[in-house]
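To the team - pyridoxal-5'-phosphate complex, inputs and output below.
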Amino acid sequence: MNEKRRAGGWLVKPTLLLHKARAVNNIETMQRKAERSGVHLRPHFKTHQSAEVGEWFRQAGVSAITVSSVDMAHYFAEAGWQDITVAFPVNLRQLAELDSLASRVRLNLLVESSESAARLDQGLKHKVAVWLKIDAGYQRTGLPWQAQDRINQVARIIESSPRLAFKGLLTHAGHTYNSRSPEAVTSIYQEVLVRLQTVQKGLGVQGIPATISIGDTPGCSLVDSFAGVDEIRPGNYVFYDMTQLQIGSCSETDIAVAVACPVVAKHASRGQLILYGGAVHLAKESIQLADGRTIFGGIAHLTDSGWSRLIDDCYLVSMSQEHGIVQATPELFEETEVGDLLLIIPIHSCLTVNLYSQYRLLDGQAVPIARML
Ligand code: PLP
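Output:
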């Protein structure tokens, strides 16, 4: 039996593997970079959703976090995190829960309208800090960066409230994900920063000081210095994935999660290997290769120390709910037997992780995932 077949005897069904050494290295690299730039790192914990993985960040010096829901804020507050930003436009139907959270932790919320600011002011008993969500080009949420008058108006409502402390301008430049080169990412980063600084100056003229918070893994991984920024909130960088690899924001050996999938059939006429591992195990995210092919994951072999480099020209090319179809080179097809394992490197690690209730480290140890929406 060769090494590939011997390794991982305990892996019997689709299993989310976590390469701890790589994740810790990613955590420490971003932390050092933030320290060098004198910027506050508030990582987004929606990527890993695990109190135990959160401790690896704490050991690296992280003391404040970002989450995407009130449930996630509760979970990490229980795990001892005292300074939490819910980086999603405030949901006014959860005011009571937010108020209870605000009684226990330093809570930071996002608003993008006068209505939300006024309702927060009226509905909360405890103090919260408030960021204005700004749309600096992504066009998802936020006050458009050009709408200075509206921005000033909402900022004034926050400033005048005894319960709300105005923090500044927060944006997520998610459009960096459409880039396919480091240069394209850094140029979006610069454009976003100039736009936020324009708004910051406009508020300054009104006598309203504002700090700046940005956060997307491509930008934060590829920019060398965060001059002009006060806080960064990347999340995906803890694991990275095929998307980040294609953008150029990580290297192959930075990717820290993979899904081990048993091979259940071989189809010689199509040169395809069929895996027990489909959309419910990986999420149905795809990227397009330079040659136009759409792929749903990269392929690697399990090794004694983790996993191999990506196997050249072999990809997960299709999937249904629980089947995955690998287009194999003749070499991979030949050497693979039914019952072997192949590892799928996910397209978007945040969405893949969200499907599991535990990671397994390379030695088999389980690390719980809270799985919150
Ligand atoms: N901040 C906000 C508001 C986000 O929506 C996200 C991700 O969607 C992040 C930060 C983290 O960005 P990334 O997933 O690129 O690490």
